[in-house]
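Structure tokens please, single chain.
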Amino acid sequence: MTALPTDALIADRVEIADLFTRFSRLLDEKRWDDAHTVFAEDVTSHSPRGGEIHGLDRLIAFVRQSEVEGERTQHLTTDLLAEIEGNRAAVSANSLVYFFRDGQAPHLTSGLRLSGTAVRTPAGWRLRESWTVLAWTRKD
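Here you go.
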């Protein structure tokens, strides 16, 4: 394994952190048309709600159809770890998700563990494989 120069490693880590921020915003703002800024075309997603989904188009279709009318989310993602090896990175983070309706306090809160593989593409870092594991849920 060849070590990246420090500046390149820092730039990659910042871009991967931004990738997780875009992921959270994508979900919170329901910006499904921007999914290509987060996921590779050949993404595989694993989650408690969707099971295993292959391909960006199928993932977008799933999140669109699983929307709950009037329900919003706020994802707070932290503890990001990126182990970069060339054009691939093993990534993980923790996320708190608040489910709420406009103007109301959250009615549900969940703790998630996120992990996966990010790949460097011509457009930047993208998630090629994504695992979401529910750690806990609390009805507020």
